[in-house]
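PROTEIN DESIGN WORKSHEET
SECTION A - STRUCTURE
LENGTH: 388
TOKENS:
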């Protein structure tokens, strides 16, 4: 316990509190049990350490990671018991998915120690969500994704802007200072601004995130063997070279030498891990259950890292739009254009994109890259990076 506390205090000293992710103010930190999920590398650990540092008594709080060697011969529940006996009130557990039977022990903590608040995070979204179903009456769950363009400007350039809801963006209410030129920063964000770490060795770190998700997180917690993990990498490689990718399940199954059902399962696992995004139609009625129309890489940074030098700017634009808008909205495919959101239709393109495809369609907008300002149904692409 003393060793864990020493590590925790060292981490607090090293935690920078000058910038907060969008999720920081959305979490109900008064809940007895809070779960925070999201892809690797989006800043979950930093967020919880910031909250402890700024809001809680350090002597009655404790941060641990479930990957710590301490848990090779100690149980989480045992730690909680000991911590409460010492006057502990707030226990934060990072990388919870690394601990076997984590959901069972969290339930026991909740039931045995009503005076203890437990906050846990996990990168393996699929496994967290499976376990969270057992904790539905106890844990309040949140999901966080990478930086918006607005957050990128704040973190890396010290430029602060408010969040603009979709309705404000559609009504051209995004206001920018006279000397601010967003296109000076936007290409860099698309290449290397989605993850909240410095651009030094950016592509290597993103590759590490991808490999850990495919080789460790998904296989370990979806009960896959090593050879199946290799097939996940093959599938992601196929998608990365073809996005936006209209899935032909039969041909993919043949290429991977697996069943059609396996391909759909693999895509879901990779999507849950935050590496791809599947654009569905609205036939499912419930979010995420419609038929998959296209598959994208999750964010533009992955395109530049995994694209092998063959980056198609139209794909980058669509990926950015899909990635940024789905945080707050259900984004579905459009039969006449690129995307539909809440009854609105969106056609994505460059500066010269016209309205021909959406002519006569009500509530339809052209979203253009390479422009600073819009008018008359034309919206700059970068505006959609201010939605969270």
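SECTION B - SEQUENCE
RESIDUE ASSIGNMENT:
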């Amino acid at each position: 316990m003393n060793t864990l506390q020493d590590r925790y205090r060292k981490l607090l000293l090293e935690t920078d509190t000058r910038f907060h992710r969008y999720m920081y103010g959305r979490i109900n930190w008064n809940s007895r049990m809070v779960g925070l999920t999201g892809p690797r590398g989006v800043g979950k650990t930093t967020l919880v350490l910031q909250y402890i540092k700024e809001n809680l008594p350090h002597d009655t709080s404790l941060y641990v990671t479930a990957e710590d060697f301490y848990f090779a011969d100690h149980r989480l529940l045992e730690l909680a018991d000991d911590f409460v006996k010492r006057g502990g009130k707030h226990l934060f557990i990072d990388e919870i998915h690394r601990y076997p039977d984590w959901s069972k022990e969290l339930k026991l903590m909740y039931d045995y120690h009503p005076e203890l608040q437990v906050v846990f995070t996990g990168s393996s979204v699929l496994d967290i969500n499976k376990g969270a179903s057992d904790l539905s009456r106890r844990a309040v769950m949140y999901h966080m994704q990478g930086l918006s363009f607005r957050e990128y400007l704040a973190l890396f350039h010290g430029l602060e802007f408010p969040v603009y809801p979709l309705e404000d963006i559609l009504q051209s209410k995004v206001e920018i200072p006279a000397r601010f030129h967003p296109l000076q920063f936007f290409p860099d964000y698309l290449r290397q601004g989605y993850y909240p770490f410095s651009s030094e060795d950016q592509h290597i770190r993103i590759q590490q995130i991808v490999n850990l998700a495919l080789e460790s997180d998904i296989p370990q917690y979806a009960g896959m063997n090593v050879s199946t993990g290799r097939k996940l990498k093959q599938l992601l490689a196929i998608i990365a070279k073809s996005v936006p990718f209209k899935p032909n399940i039969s041909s993919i199954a043949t290429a991977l030498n697996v069943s059609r059902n396996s391909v759909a399962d693999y895509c879901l696992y990779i999507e849950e891990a935050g590496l791809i995004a599947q654009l569905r139609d609205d036939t499912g009625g419930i979010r995420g259950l419609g038929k998959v129309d296209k598959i994208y890489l999750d964010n533009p940074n992955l395109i530049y890292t995994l694209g092998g030098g063959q980056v198609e700017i139209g794909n980058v634009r669509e990926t950015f739009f899909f990635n940024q808008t789905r945080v707050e909205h259900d984004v579905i495919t459009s039969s006449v254009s690129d995307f539909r959101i809440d009854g609105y239709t969106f056609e994505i393109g460059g500066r010269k994109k016209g309205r021909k495809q959406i002519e006569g369609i009500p509530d339809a907008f052209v979203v253009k890259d390479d422009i600073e300002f819009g008018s008359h149904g034309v919206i700059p692409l970068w505006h959609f990076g201010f939605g969270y």
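SECTION C - NOTES
The longest helix spans residues 202-221.
The chain has two domains: 2-143, 149-386.
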